[in-house]
Every structure is written in structure tokens, then in C-alpha cells.
Write a structure and sequence with these properties.
This protein is 66% helix and 8% strand. A 3-stranded antiparallel beta sheet has the order 1-3-2. The chain is mainly alpha-helical. It is built from 6 helices and 3 strands, in the order αβααββααα.
Length: 119
Amino acid sequence: MAEIQLGVIEARYADMIWAHEPVTSSELVKMSAVEFNWKRTTAHNVLRRLIDKGLFRNENGVVTAVISREEFYSMQSRQYVEETFAGSLPAFIAAFMQGSRITAEEAEAIRRMIERAEE
């Protein structure tokens, strides 16, 4: 899938949609007025940009996700590792863990993830 870049406001708006979907565009206008102090046209313009980027669809005034929040942030994480650490997960983990410790529960959860990925 093509790279999807979101600005800070687009990401916050997308998170709001994911949290409430399926949601009507009218409800989004009301929520964005409260959350962002936006006018109707701004809410619709940002929604249109998110639709054009392939994250959401608006069918008969009901907005739903094309890509789930988890899928989107997974793609973003993979892209970050690819661009920043030449795709090396061990290099990313080494940088992430530098100067940190993890609990026994976290270590066990990571072991289970690795075992599932190896299967």
C-alpha cells in the first residue's frame, strides 16, 4: 500500500473517526466543532482529504474506515523502521531500549510475539 502521511490535525481527526465509527458526517461536524472549534466546511474538507488518502469512505453520509487504526499505525511503524533503521528490527529495538529496562511480563510478551512470528 502507498505511503500515507498525516499532519497532526488530520491524525487527531482520524483518531476521532476511528473511535466513533460508523459515524455520520453530521455527527462528525458536531464533534469537530466541540473538539477543534471547526466550522462545517473545515470538518468536511479534512474528511475529504482523509478519504482521498484512502483511510475512510463516506457512503450515504455514513463514514467508515477502509483501513483500521491498528493497520494504519502498523504501516507507519514499519515505514519508520524501514526509513530510519534500514528495515532492521534489531537495530530499532536496540535504539529503543538504550538505557531502559523491561519487566519480566513485558519480556515474556515479546517472546510470545517472536514465537508467533516464527511459526
